[in-house]
Amino acid sequence: xxxxxxxxxxxxxxxxxxxxxxxxxxxxxxxxxxxxxxxxWGDEGKxxxxxxxxxxxxxxxxxxxxxxxxxxxxxxxxxxxALHLVPSGILNDDTLCVIGNGVVVHLPxxxxxxxxxxxxxxSCKGRILISDRAxxxxxxxxEVDGLRESELxxxxxxxxxxxxxxxYSSKVIRNGIRVCDLRHMDTFPQKLDLLLSDxxxxxxxxxxxxxxxxxxxxxxxxxxxxxxPFIADTVLVMNEAISDKKKILVEGGQATMLDIDFGTYPFxxxxxxxxxxxxxxxxIAPRVVxxxxxxxxxxxxxxxSGPFPTEILGKGGDLLRFAGQEFGTTTGRxxxxxxxxxxxxxxxxxxxxxxxxxxxxxxxxxxFSEIQLGVSYKHADGTPVKSFPADLRxxxxxxVEYEVLPGWxxxxxxxxxxxxxxxxxCRYVERVEELVGAPIHYIGVxxxxxxxxxx
Length: 455
Ligand code: 2SA
Ligand code: GDP
Ligand code: MG
Known about the structure:
Bound molecules: ligand 2SA, guanosine-5'-diphosphate, magnesium ion
Structural class: alpha/beta
Strand order of the largest sheet: 9-7-5-2-10-1-11-15-19-20
């Protein structure tokens, strides 16, 4: 329950100016190649931070995932944009947006997104480059995604059904079709036929006919023409930009706990949303990658199936979901909600080596008079669990130990200076820093561009 407003109007102008100054120096000190990565199970608010930082970077690049991502951002007039494949730098006129080789690209979706942006007044012409090495994600991959989920019945993953798993499967099994293949329409039908026949032989529910192939080939001839100005050797583009001292910001999709290697497998996505994905998905060397900012919600959400140790079931979860408006940006699905999980966050920090964190949606916790922090895990027999476990059975059985912190019962959404936050809110932020061992440099107190506190 919100009972007071914390900053007196007279203090706010000075606070905003101080915060803006501190923010600028924080942002300007980020290294030439920096990254923004998700620390939990996605939807931490990566898009918002990328949009804000993009004003100070020449290039914003996506390195993995596809249109499963949903990044919600607002421009300075408060107009909302939901991005899926287009990097969140697109609202800044001077930023070049790169879709790297590690991304799986659904062309009909990409063109729809570009058309939507253009009709909202965002010029995309000459501002988006797509790697010639990126793999194409076809409509049939999406159909197969749905068929796989049905086949899994009760153990379904809860994918976005955007065809992500099947497209990465085609890539890894080595019969995928890449963007550069669109330049050879003579061999394209044969390649697509192989993919579609494969799907038809695997799934009874997949109807494949010669007409389907013909139709798809005709569509892709048109797409190939439209895509041509966007295609680039982005490995060269990125490395030349690095030599030219241009500033590059890498935008992660999903998050470490959904990583194909480090996440709660098999309830994960099919790419590498953690630090390693930056190099493999863009073709840049590890030594050029500098600061990585981990984005972490002040609580936890997860969409889809799979383990979630700090999940709040019932009314508490509903309260968080409505307070935080926790519904999927891509699918509209209600997100599962729970308390912040320090064990998972520490594991994620180890994997990525973040230089700082962005704690988002702190404003949402204003609804709670007490806030819980999941600080450690115990086995069923009471012995401590050392780190986030791989074993799903263990994850189901373990007990989470919580620390209870007082809430602040105030609206903090208009605070712009750290020292103007209520004491209890600062205590929460500082306790998280202490437990995790990484500094929180950015604190989100609302969805808008300006709703960011620099610490
Ligand atoms: P997929 O579609 O194969 O990548 O799904 C596999 C798992 O990865 C999860 N996943 C996500 N989790 C949170 N947010 C995502 N993006 C959208 C958003 C999600 C939406 O921004 O809200 O709209 O539903 C995202 N993308 C993939 C997915 O839930 C599966 O658990
Ligand atoms: P992403 O996938 O990590 O970019 O996150 P999403 O865009 O899917 O989900 C985050 C949601 O929270 C979006 O609707 C954002 O507008 C919103 N958001 C981001 N930061 C904040 C914040 O600090 N406070 C509040 N209330 N909302 C935020
Ligand atoms: Mg999202």
